[in-house]
Design goal:
Number of domains of chain C: 2
Oligomer: heterotrimer
Helix content of chain C: 25-40%
CATH class of the largest domain in chain C: Mainly Beta
Strand order of the largest sheet of chain A: 5-11-10-7-8
CATH superfamily of the largest domain in chain A: Cupredoxins -  blue copper proteins
Number of strands of chain A: 17
Largest interface: B-C, 114 and 105 residues
CATH architecture of the largest domain in chain A: Sandwich
Shape of chain A: globular
Radius of gyration of chain A: 21 Å
Number of domains of chain A: 2
Number of helices of chain A: 3
Chains: A alpha+beta, B mainly alpha, C alpha+beta
Structural class of chain C: alpha+beta
Largest sheet of chain C: 5 strands, mixed
Radius of gyration of chain C: 26 Å
CATH topology of the largest domain in chain A: Immunoglobulin-like
Strand content of chain A: 35-45%
Order of helices and strands of chain A: HEHEHEEEEEEEEEEEEEEE
Order of helices and strands of chain C: HHHEEEEEEEEEEH
Chain lengths: 247, 593, 267
């Protein structure tokens, strides 16, 4: 009896210490964190995006009756800002910032037979949800390279189906497709460490960056990648602007 | 010729539990083991069909506990489209291979073929034991695929290439699921090859004194013809499955053509043939249909004769017809491929033997009907199921007229018409054959009678239920309802959904009726009335030995046969029936000279 | 029990025939030129199969009714004519029946598969892939450009793998997600699959043909009625099989011309 008691006491102590360490560790990090901001622009006029013929599925064509769907390879804002560029740190990350996993759970929605967002950036092991808002069945079929350790999957989501919760094990740029609606095409960009995705004006902010100097990489599905060196002071922010050329 | 009987490898009566009930060399125990396996498989297959039917009728209905089978396949207890296909594939595979092949052929054949030929066992008892245990392993390999990461394969029981050969990129279960499927079927083929060899040698070499080939009962002929078909059919399917496995694990491309693209990636295969799989599969697949049904024809004839108290109009015509079905079954397999893209001339070439095969089928039916005329028909569970078989065989047979013709097949191929056709003629009819055999032979196999009232209730519910399920399938097919759809979203299919709901209700009711049978089977096994040696006043050898038969079938005295198998109502004879072993001299028009 | 059973057989046989006779769930309307032959063949077969079905079931029911309660001491009787008579009947009746069906059915089959398309038939290419059909029209030059499997990119809406920068013939090719055709014009459909087995089935058109990966297959047909019809896949092709469809739009020549012009502008 007493042995069990002792064990319980030791166990609770260990748990308490662990929790405390975790909480303290986070606080320490948060205090010194900075950020990297900037904008991504596309040089010259935006390429023409082909329209999508959704005639195969009455639901999809009806959803786009007034607003015909078009390809989302280049989505360019009014000031030439390039959307759907993923910005992440490729060099310079050390310590807990490199190994921490983002705790938010982003959503990858299938809406009006398109992916929202078109590009979903993710941390390694970060959980995300695939949802459907459509009254037609989709299948979600990401095709990672199996050599990376990421496992491909292929699952249907009929109307009203529960969200599918997944995560990726290794950094990789993974194309994802709906085979039922072959035009539906998106990307999971899995990176290690803090990341951001440019918005419709091309602006981005990478949060939770500890002080230090880094190489920031900007990835675009068609225009390729670019890198820049950035230094972040404690609690301050670094800046990096990118300009892509359409290919 | 009368004394050419060889002898089985002698094996004394076992004493240990394991050698008696598990790894037994006794063909009777092996027959029962096959029956138990088939029963288990049938219950699983039926449960799968329930899940599918509920989904087709009420797609969003949550089946309590279904997520326990697969949390990704049935999130919230509702089937996903892929899991529907996966269950459908397993239903077809389990039913065709592990029920329709094992129960009428391997189970009853094992138990009764040696007894009916007057042998003390099969000539190769070790092969016989291996036959069952190999099949048993094959079954669990198939079931194992429920529990691997992506679940079982979704390719349908025909497993058409290249979907079956390209791996998991083709869909859930198309990787490991297919490998397990093909492994299971290859193993199954080995088991059936062992079994077929034993059946053939038993029939040819193990007959007792006086048992000429024509004195074999129709059941023995059914199993013999089936085993010859099995030997050739499974010998083709097994290598086909091995090639399919190689396409998965060894990087070969037997069944995958060059330059196929999925998700914008060119598959790493080249030079294979898509149609090769279909040719190999259906070269097995069509004989397989007859492997499922010919033993049933034998059983039904046997049961009917005993209950009509008169022999068939012609013993030989029935045997020749069954043999003709077996031979023709190899020449007709192309009718599964009329619109597959093979040469359209080939379709015509395959069409004619397919139409010709209706002639022996019609003869068999006419023999049954003609023999029924003027009989003294006894109505019991066994004879009811035998008559039900005849009715189902007719109904399933006439739809063959349509499917045998390439021009009509353009409309009906891959629709519910085909599903209705093969369920009636190969599924329900063969099942009725199994039931007829069970009610008829249960006393001999266990020493106890089955409950007749429950048997009749089981029959009438199954008979009406099966028609309510499968007749509407034909109407759906005529209206163009494509098979293997998990929901009906096309505009022209939506009006057909009420028919699907009707079928679902019928399937659930009919399914529950089968539980009456299971109850009857288990209850009678322990509590049934004690059976006499010859409860139905039959004539063939299984009725001249003790109930249940001793280890070596006939005790210390091997039987000697004096008569044709079915000497019923012989004029001037001492009794209504003359057993094959009776030395009584009779003057019967049916006696072979 | 025997009499109940006999009555059940009769009732089931009649009930089975009712939906067929009443056309409750009929074949979809026929909009093709060759369809008449198939429909006639189907009707003939239905008549013969229906008669065989009803006659055999009634006979079975009648015999069960009549012979299941023999009076004590009654002798068994043999069917008049015996086995030989029945075998002869099977060969004569069924043999002639099936031979006739086979021979006449050949005509219907030949009209679809053994006659070449007319020289002026309009070529359209269809590609099946998991889980959609795409159609290609040759454009003003009347020539299809070559296909490059490695350039197929659904991500960039290049469903066929056309190389419009290098292949002259591909430049004016028109790719669409639906099959629009002019009415009363013979269509020569060139079929190929991008990945696994699929099938092209339009019940109204009386056409069903599998796609064979690695093999080019063709069918030809003429649609005679303007309207919108569904093209469905009948060969199990994966999880989206039931969702694999496209629309066939049979248009008047003017409407078709306008449509193709509009499509050309969208490329």
């Amino acid at each position: 009896m007493s042995k069990t008691k002792n064990f319980a006491v030791v166990l609770s102590a260990v748990v308490l210490v662990c929790c405390g360490a975790l909480i303290l560790g986070q606080k320490v990090n948060a205090a010194g964190e900075g950020k990297i901001t900037g904008t991504v622009k596309l040089d010259g006029t935006a390429p023409h995006m082909k329209g999508i013929d959704m005639g195969k599925d009455p639901f999809c064509s009806k959803a786009h009756a007034t607003d015909p769907g078009k390809m989302e390879t280049y989505v360019v804002g009014s000031g030439g800002g390039l959307e759907n560029v993923v910005l992440y740190i490729t060099e310079g990350l050390t310590g807990p910032a490199a190994s921490q996993t983002a705790t938010t759970e982003p959503v990858f929605d299938q809406k009006n037979c398109m992916y929202t967002p078109h590009v979903l950036a993710l941390d390694v092991d970060q959980k995300f949800k695939v949802t459907t808002s459509d009254q037609t069945t989709h299948n979600i079929h990401p095709l990672p390279n199996p050599m990376t350790g990421n496992i491909p999957w292929n699952q249907s989501q009929p109307p009203g189906a529960a969200p599918v919760e997944k995560s990726w094990k290794a950094p990789e740029v993974i194309p994802v497709q709906c085979n039922i609606h072959p035009w539906m095409h998106g990307w999971f960009v899995v990176v290690k460490g803090p990341y951001a995705t440019s918005d419709s004006n091309g602006a981005y902010t990478i949060n939770n960056v500890p002080p230090g100097s880094y190489t920031v990489t900007a990835w675009h599905e068609a225009a390729g990648t670019q890198t820049q060196k950035v230094t972040v002071a404690a609690g301050g922010s670094g800046s990096a602007n990118f300009t892509f050329k359409a290919k | 010729m009368h004394d050419m009987s060889a002898h089985a490898v002698p094996h004394g009566a076992p004493t240990s539990f394991i050698r008696k009930h598990v790894f037994s060399l006794d063909h009777k125990v092996i027959g029962k083991q096959y029956y138990a396996l088939a029963l288990l498989a049938a219950l699983i297959g039926m449960a799968l069909s329930w899940i599918m039917r509920i989904h087709l009728g009420w797609g969003s209905f949550a089946i309590p506990g279904l997520h326990l089978l697969s949390s990704t396949g049935a999130p919230g207890n509702v089937l996903t489209p892929e899991y529907y296909l996966q269950l459908m594939t397993m239903h077809g595979t389990i039913m065709v291979f592990f029920v329709l092949t094992t129960a009428p052929f391997a189970a009853f054949g094992n138990f009764f073929l040696p007894i009916q030929t007057g042998a003390e066992d099969m000539p190769f008892p070790h092969f016989n034991m291996m036959s069952f245990w190999v099949t048993f392993v094959g079954f669990w390999v198939l079931i194992a695929s429920f529990f691997v990461a992506d679940g079982p394969t979704l390719g349908g029981w025909t497993q058409y290439a290249p979907l079956s050969a390209i791996g998991s990129v083709g869909g859930p279960g198309q990787g490991l699921g297919v490998v397990l499927w093909a492994t299971s079927i290859a193993i199954f083929c080995v088991g059936q090859l062992f079994g077929s060899l034993n059946f053939i040698t038993t029939t040819l070499d193990m007959r007792c004194k006086g048992m000429s080939l024509m004195r074999l009962p129709l059941t023995a002929w059914g199993w013999f013809i089936t085993s010859v078909m099995g030997l050739t059919a499974f010998a083709v399917l097994m290598p086909a499955c091995i090639l399919l496995i190689l396409d998965h694990v060894a990087g070969t491309s037997f069944f995958v053509a060059s330059n196929l693209v999925i998700n914008d990636q060119v598959l790493p295969h080249s030079g294979g043939s898509t149609l090769l799989w279909q040719h190999l599969f259906w070269f097995f697949g069509h004989p397989e249909v007859y492997i499922a049904i010919v033993p049933g024809m034998g059983i039904v004839s046997h049961v009917l004769i005993t209950n009509m108290r008169k022999p068939m109009l012609s013993h030989r015509v029935l045997i020749y017809s069954m043999a003709a079905l077996a031979v023709l079954s190899y020449m007709v397999y192309g009718h599964h491929m009329f619109v597959s893209g093979m040469n359209p001339i080939s379709s015509l070439v395959f069409s004619f033997p397919t139409l010709v095969i209706t002639i022996p089928s019609t003869i068999v039916v006419l023999m049954w009907l003609g023999s029924l005329y003027g009989s003294k028909l006894r109505i019991n569970s066994a004879s009811l199921f035998a008559l039900g078989f005849v009715s189902m065989f007719i109904s399933g047979g006439v739809s063959g007229f349509f499917l045998a013709q390439p021009s009509i097949d353009i409309m009906l191929h891959a629709t519910y018409f085909v599903v209705g056709h093969f369920h009636l003629v190969m599924g329900v009819a063969a099942m009725f054959g199994i039931f007829a055999g069970t009610y008829f032979w249960f006393p001999k196999m266990t020493g106890r009678m089955m409950n007749e009232t429950l048997g009749k209730a089981h029959f009438i519910l199954s008979f009406i239920g099966a028609y309510c399920i499968f007749m509407p399938f034909h109407y759906l097919g005529i209206a163009g309802n494509v098979r293997r759809y998990q929901a009906f979203t096309d505009d022209y299919l939506i009006p057909l959904i009420p028919v699907h709901k009707f079928i679902t209700v019928a399937a659930l009711v009919t399914g529950f009726a089968q539980l009456i049978f299971v109850y009857n089977l288990i209850h009678s096994r322990f509590k049934g009335a004690i059976a006499s040696d010859n409860p139905w006043q039959g004539t063939s050898l299984e009725w001249s030995t003790a109930t249940p038969p001793p280890h070596n079938n006939f005790g210390d005295k091997m039987p000697v046969v004096y008569h044709d198998p079915y000497q019923y109502s012989v004029e001037g004879a001492s009794a209504d029936f003359i057993m094959q072993t009776s030395p009584e001299k009779i003057n019967s028009p049916n006696e072979e000279k | 029990m025997a009499k109940i059973f006999a009555v059940v057989i009769i009732l089931i046989a009649i009930a089975s025939a009712v939906p067929i006779v009443m056309h409750w769930w009929p074949m979809p309307q026929d909009i093709s030129v060759h369809g008449t032959l198939i429909d006639e063949q189907y009707a003939d077969t239905m008549l013969e199969a229906g008669i065989s079905f009803l006659a055999s079931q009634f006979l079975l029911a009648f015999f069960i009714w009549k012979f299941s309660a023999p009076k004590p001491g009654e002798r068994v009787k043999n069917f008049p004519g015996g086995a030989a008579g029945l075998v002869a009947a099977a060969f004569l009746l069924v043999g002639t029946e099936v031979l006739a069906l086979g021979v006449f059915g050949t005509k219907a089959w030949a009209s679809v598969y053994l006659t070449p398309p007319a020289a002026n038939a309009m070529p359209v290419q269809v590609q099946a892939g998991q889980f959609a059909f795409y159609f290609r029209y040759p454009g003003p030059d009347g020539k299809f450009g070559p296909l490059h499997a490695d350039q197929i990119s659904e991500a960039n809406a290049n469903f066929f793998g056309l190389d419009t920068t290098h292949d002259q013939d591909s430049k004016d090719d028109i790719v669409a997600a639906e099959l629009a055709i002019p009415v009363n014009r013979e269509i020569h459909l060139l079929m190929h699959s991008k990945d696994v087995g699929h099938s092209f089935y339009v019940p109204e058109l009386r056409i069903q043909q599998d796609f064979v990966p690695g093999l080019d297959v063709t069918v030809h047909f003429t649609a005679t009625k303007i309207g919108k019809y569904e093209i469905v896949c009948t060969q199990l092709c994966g999880l989206g099989h039931y969702n694999m469809k496209a629309y066939l739009e049979v248009k008047s020549q003017e409407d078709y011309d306008a449509w193709i012009k509009q499509q050309a502008a969208l490329q």
